[in-house]
Amino acid sequence: MSNDPIAPQTTRSARRQQAAGGRTEAYSSARQDRAEKALRAERASFSVHRLFLHRVGGIPGTLIGESTLPPRKGFTKRLTQWNYWWQAQLLDALVDAGERYVADGRISEAERVMDQSHRLLRGIRIHNFGTYVNSFYDDMAWLTLAAGRLNDLSHAVRGRGSDPAQEAGRALYPQLRAAVTDEAGGGAFWSKAEDFKNLPASGPIAIALARAGEQDQAAALTRWFRDRLWSPEKGYVDGIKLELQRNGTRQETLEERAFSYNQGVAIGAHLETVGGDVKHLEDVIRLVNERFTRTHTEEGTEFRVLDTRGSGDGGLFAGILARYLARAASDARVEPKARHLARDLVVATAELLWAGRREFDPDLPLNEPGVDVTEIRGESVVLFSPDATRHSSETLGSGARVELSTQIQAWTILEAAYRLA
Fold it and tell me: Are 101 and 38 in contact (CB under 8 A)?
């Protein structure tokens, strides 16, 4: 050991400088990662808007998402197959983008997203024959959640609430409360046929009521599906059918299918409600990893990603799961191992979706002689594979119809990965 009394001090100083340099490098790397994830989410947002959104019947100040690309032929199909629920998820994704812009200090961009969101709300109301109310409580619950988040975004951007979002809330909250009855021990009906109490309605209604300050009602719903619909082997199953018998009674039959988005809304409800079973989320996230993922190998490394396969409504299931997994991954009440697992699933799925994207120029004049279809002359758009484990070149062949649901799902997952960056 050196007898020089200055040596230990010099060593400590050098170590401090080395540590500071390491922190600076890590901080710089984190900033780059966050910027890259923001760019990816922005490309998804731009592409959905560019390829799928249009006015309702040419009416100014409106937007609606086209269900497929290319659009379905025939006025009747386009009128009836517009998918209210998909539009609610589209609004949620738009709010994700607005929150991202606020976080990055891009307030003018957040203002633009708010304008798009207001136009979409008007488009939904007009397309739905002048009302936000329909026959399915789960549809209305999802739109309520998205509108509530839009109202919060408006407070953050403009210092006041959103009139269109508040109008939607006033119309929809009474509907959600009416869905909740004591039959089958509690829970919320799925539709106004009132023959099925399920998690796709009870979960988002619980979250919506909790956000409205109605914690007792939200907690009752969450306890109901925790007690009645949780299976340690399958995860959260779908619901309870109430079948009318000849003697006038109604028999309860458990619908035992388990879907990925049911796990997501259950996670969200437990986190949102006072008295939610946060400890239980360790089991839910473990079941998600075991049952609702696929194993993928890349360059000799094996890892799990969310199972994004699905068409129609199913094309949104993994996106909803990712939204609430990201919430769990950011909540200090959740056990660290479960938080890390939730984060890894979301981030890995986003990485694979991005790697498997198809990028092209939508304005390329393909009828010109000698045009290379891979050429980018203007601003490109991206399409994402509905199956994260397969490249879009495999799943989106030439002329294949692309569903809006799968593209909102990819966008939602990319936004969730950004929030975790």
Answer: no
Percent of the chain with pLDDT over 90: 83
CB 165 within 8 A of CB 94: no
Residue type, 342: A
Tokens of 320: 């909803």
Q: Enter the DSSP assignment of 331.
A: -
Q: Please identify which residue in the block is written with the tokens 């006015």.
A: 55
Closest Cα partner for 244 from 191, 180, 195, 197? 195
- For residues 132-166, one letter each, b for 16 or more C-beta atoms within 10 angstroms of the residue's C-beta and e for the rest, the string is bbbebbbbbbbbbbbbbbbbbbbeebeeeebebbe
**What stretches of 128-198 show up as alpha helix (H) in DSSP?**
137-158, 163-179
Q: Which long-range contacts (CB under 8 A, 24 or more apart) does 325-332 make?
A: 325/264, 325/267, 325/285, 325/288, 325/416, 326/416, 326/417, 326/419, 326/420, 327/267, 327/268, 327/271, 328/267, 328/271, 328/281, 328/285, 329/420, 330/419, 330/420, 331/271, 331/278
Provide the greatest CA pair distance for the chain.
98
What is the three-state SS of 195-235? CEEEHHHHHHHHHHHHHCCCHHHHHHHHHHHHHHCEECCCE
- Are 141 and 208 in contact by the 8 Å Cβ rule? The answer is yes
3-state helix, strand, coil in the chain (%, to 5): 60, 10, 30
pLDDT band (50, 70, 90) for residue 399: confident
CA angle 336, 352, 50 (to 5 degrees): 115
Assigned token pair, 253: 């039959």
Cα of first residue to Cα of last residue in the chain, in angstroms, is 44
Are 170 and 159 in contact by the 8 Å Cβ rule? The answer is no
pLDDT tens digits for range 145-200: 999 999 999 999 999 999 999 999 999 999 999 999 999 999 999 999 999 999 99
Convert 217-229 to b/e letters by CB count within 10 Å (16 or more is b): bbbbbbbbbbebb
Alpha carbon of 124 to those of 3, 9, 129, 353: distances in Å?
Answer: 79, 68, 9, 29
Tokens of 345: 């699933």
CB 360 within 8 A of CB 343: no
R_g of the chain computed on alpha carbons:
24
> 71 preceded by cis ω (within 30°)?
no
pTM above 0.70, yes or no: yes
**Amino acid code (one letter) for 39:** L
Give the chain's mean pLDDT: 92
Q: What is the pLDDT averaged over residues 230-235?
A: 98
